[in-house]
DNA sequence: GAGATTTGACCAGA
DNA sequence: TCTGGTCAAATCTC
């Protein structure tokens, strides 16, 4: 079963490779180009349908040595072993890991591309656990290829925070620029009122209040914390909803209740790396969890009920990639590029061994 | 000079 | 008592 699935994937990859190799020739032959692309899309759609119909669960591995890549997916429904997807030569790693104490109900999948200055993370509820919901949404920003997914934590355990943890949203966003100390613009104007070293964290936490607080008595606050293991990603915690509703930009998301994402581009082929990344983000947004919540403009990323849906993000990620219509392996490289300086290579893979 | 940022001190919850 | 969150004076920037 896996072999046939693998062969389907390899078939799609081969088609993509062929297209890539002949791209210079086909550049002025749109008809052939379109047909070739449709063939590739069709191949990966077949993969997607096969994956979904067979309801992949448990441990599974897909090897693609011919394209120099290995897609590996480890998971057990009971214990949420780390799920790792390694790519071309193992140069990039995507994994689901604990980012919070084991008692927490949050798990995440994170993707990060330092060259693009792009980070992408998925969170979903505890597998096999009960209780809280993790509400998710996605967005793509215009600065530095920022990609982010927002998740409102509504679990009971999360509410037992130090102070008022209700109406708290944790968001992870990539730094708008390499080495930037400031988090990406989120559409609101903030006033920094404090910074503090946090025990056990490598980087200080910054505290912000809404700049409209005085004018509108807006209670919104946010905290910005760099991740220890990936300083190119900020963990932004929003507290309290904005009551001012006055934004610094016309088209902004309004955390914590983010608005619906923009429709995907008409063309299936983004014209730049950033567009590709953003486009992937939007695809991810549309697919992760699947069921839009029109009332809040958010998506349910996981029910937290420990059912088979918990396994969806991996399949959906494949869906997003395979359905993207990306015709060449370059696009994969762009999104999950193999970078020598990629810190995950050294740090994360050691853990895996 | 006004507004933003920094930083040490203080407060409150666990 | 420890630690995260907030306050407010000092400092910086425009």
Automatic annotation (TrEMBL):
For this entry, the protein name equals WRKY transcription factor 55
- Presence of keyword Transmembrane: no
Q: Which residues form a coiled coil?
A: none
| Record GO terms (molecular function) | DNA-binding transcription factor activity; sequence-specific DNA binding
The residues the entry assigns to the signal sequence are: none
Sorted alphabetically, the Gene Ontology cellular component annotations on this record are:
nucleus
What is the annotated localization of this protein?
Nucleus
> What is the scientific name of the source organism?
Dorcoceras hygrometricum
Please give the SUPFAM superfamilies that the UniProt record associates with this protein. Answer: WRKY DNA-binding domain
User: Principal localization?
Assistant: nucleus
Query: Which keywords does the record carry?
Result: DNA-binding, Nucleus, Transcription, Transcription regulation
- What InterPro entries has UniProt attached to this entry? WRKY_dom, WRKY_dom_sf, WRKY_plant
Q: Which residues form the WRKY domain?
A: 185-247
SMART domains, A to Z: WRKY (SM00774)
């Amino acid at each position: 079963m896996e072999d046939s699935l693998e062969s389907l994937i390899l078939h799609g990859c081969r088609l993509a490779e062929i297209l890539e190799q002949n791209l210079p020739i086909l550049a002025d032959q749109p008809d052939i180009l379109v047909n070739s692309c449709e063939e590739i899309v069709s191949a990966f759609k077949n993969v997607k349908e096969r994956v979904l119909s067979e309801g992949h669960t448990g441990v599974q591995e897909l090897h693609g040595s011919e394209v120099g890549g290995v897609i590996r997916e480890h998971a057990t429904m009971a214990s949420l072993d780390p799920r790792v997807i390694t790519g071309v030569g193992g140069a990039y790693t995507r994994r689901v890991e604990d980012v919070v104490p084991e008692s927490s109900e949050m798990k995440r999948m994170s993707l990060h591309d330092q060259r693009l200055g792009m980070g992408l993370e998925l969170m979903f509820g505890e597998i096999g656990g009960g209780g809280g919901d993790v509400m998710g949404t996605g967005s793509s920003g215009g600065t530095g290829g920022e990609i982010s997914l927002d998740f409102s934590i509504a679990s009971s355990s999360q509410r037992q925070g130090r102070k008022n943890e209700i109406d708290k949203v944790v968001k992870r966003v990539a730094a708008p620029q390499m080495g930037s100390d400031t988090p990406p613009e989120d559409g609101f104007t903030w006033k920094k009122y404090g910074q503090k070293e946090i025990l056990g964290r490598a980087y200080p936490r910054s505290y912000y209040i809404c700049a409209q607080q005085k004018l509108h008595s807006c209670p919104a606050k946010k905290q910005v914390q760099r991740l220890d293991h990936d300083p190119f990603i900020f963990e932004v915690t929003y507290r309290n909803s904005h009551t001012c509703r006055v934004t610094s930009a016309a088209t902004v998301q309004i955390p914590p209740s983010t608005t619906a994402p923009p429709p995907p581009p008409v063309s299936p082929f983004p014209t730049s790396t950033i567009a590709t990344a953003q486009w992937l983000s939007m695809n991810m947004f549309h697919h992760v969890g699947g069921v839009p919540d029109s009332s809040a403009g958010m998506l349910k990323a996981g029910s937290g009920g420990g059912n088979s849906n918990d396994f969806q993000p991996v399949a959906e990620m494949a869906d997003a990639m395979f359905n993207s219509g990306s015709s060449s392996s370059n696009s994969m490289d762009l999104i999950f590029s193999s970078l020598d300086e990629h810190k995950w290579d050294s740090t994360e893979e050691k853990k895996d061994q």
